[in-house]
Request: fold
Amino acid sequence: MITTEDQLRTLYAAPGERAVRKQLARLDAHCRRFVALSPLCVIATGGADGSLLDASPRGGPPGFVQVTDAGDLLLPDAGGNNRLDTLTNLLHDPRIGLLFLIPGVDETLRVNGTARLRDEAAFTSLFAAERQAPRLVVQVEVREAYLHCAKALMRSRLWAPASQIDRSELPTLNQMIHDQIGNPAAPESQADMVGRYARQIEAEQGRPPA
Reply:
């Protein structure tokens, strides 16, 4: 079992100079462009002392996360299950990590920093032109940013059409949750759930229902 960094380092070569130097203390033009094209990011947060870490996806149209002139990230909150895991964690521990993805691009962008929850109109109104004003905005002060190589997504073939499975290979989300919690009631169908989510997203984005 590996228990020290010295033991760990004996298994791997030292990182190359470029791998070390690519870590930036701010978002440069390339990072800003990556964020502008990204419709999906994964947020990692911690919580109160001793709690487990959490990773949660956030999505929207490309560029749904804004970059300020000062280089902060602004992430509008969107409707979810109201557990508020990410937001509660940030109240206890403001450290945050984000992984940005762009469909069809195997490279990713990793950003680390500290976050504040902003409910002032000066922040929420910034998103009013594209959608309903969010209840709050997560403001991230960037401390580290670096582009991550393509190997993980190349290995997974994530964007390849042949990698996609038919949705029927898995039970519906509602069926799985009913099984997990022992709910004997008939679950909502996949089609009904998708339709309900679509209506919620349309309302959130200020579009009339289809």
Summary: Residues 165-204 form one domain. The chain is about 30% helix and 25% strand. The chain has a mean pLDDT of 93. Residues 198 and 209 are 9 Å apart (CA to CA).
